[in-house]
Design goal:
heterodimer, A: 113 residues, mainly beta, B: 114 residues, seven-stranded mixed β-sheet, 0% helix
Chain lengths: 113, 114
């Protein structure tokens, strides 16, 4: 799996957009970018994933650069409940396989009131 | 639809004992994965089961084992517990045929080894 690099921590004011960067310069053509988050003492929660096009769902938007070497997760209107560790994971399609996800250290996002 | 459930939520054991943790996946999900989370090592993949068969295994010693039942429920067992086994053990389920690795995690079992 491609290695990812994320800032250790970030702050964001409540109500503002939180933009979380992720570098994955060694990503392969068949690898997707996934984002999960883990709120303190809970299990990780899937947020969004993408291959090369920008994606949006009810939780967030994912912007992937044209060369696919980096991406940004955007939480459009951050709330205090968005305080969590956010993990960027790069992984190949695994429909028939049974491989575990490789979680790095992630970014600790702190939403300030 | 009910989420992934894990029992027990908290457990205290002493060194040398063994422990069994249980996981019930989301209804219809046939794949169950187990992860260990510690402050030092972060989230690490233990193993995944599908159709009662272990499909892949992380880099953990043989003291860590698991199984899956015909109803997709899974158990993991740790024998001869060591202090370093103190961790949050997370179970995740997914649709086996999913095109992406969207996994749904349970709340975890926090194991403390004294």
């Amino acid at each position: 799996d491609a290695k990812t690099t994320q800032p250790t921590s970030m702050d964001c004011a409540e109500g503002r957009a939180a933009n979380l960067p992720c570098n994955h310069s060694t990503i392969s053509g068949n690898e997707y970018v996934y984002w999960y988050r883990q709120i303190h003492s809970q299990g990780p929660q899937y947020i969004i994933h993408g291959l090369k096009n920008n994606e949006t769902n009810e939780m967030a938007s994912l912007i992937i650069t044209e060369d696919r070497k980096s991406s940004t997760l955007i939480l459009p209107h951050a709330t205090l409940r968005d305080t969590a560790v956010y993990y960027c994971i790069v992984r190949a399609y695994s429909g028939g396989g049974a491989d575990g996800l490789t979680f790095g250290k992630g970014t600790h996002l702190i939403i300030q009131p | 639809k009910a989420g992934v459930t894990q029992t027990p939520r908290y457990l205290i054991k002493t060194r040398g004992q063994q422990v069994t943790l249980s996981c019930s996946p989301i209804s219809g999900h046939r794949s169950v994965s187990w992860y260990q989370q510690t402050p030092g090592q972060g989230l690490q993949f233990l193993f995944e089961y599908f159709s009662e068969t272990q499909r892949n295994k992380g880099n953990f010693p043989g003291r860590f084992s698991g199984r899956q039942f015909s109803n997709s429920r899974s158990e993991m067992n740790v024998s001869t517990l060591e202090l370093g086994d103190s961790a949050l053990y997370l179970c995740a389920s997914r649709l086996y045929s999913a095109i992406y690795n969207e996994q749904f995690f349970g709340p975890g079992t926090r194991l403390t080894v004294l």
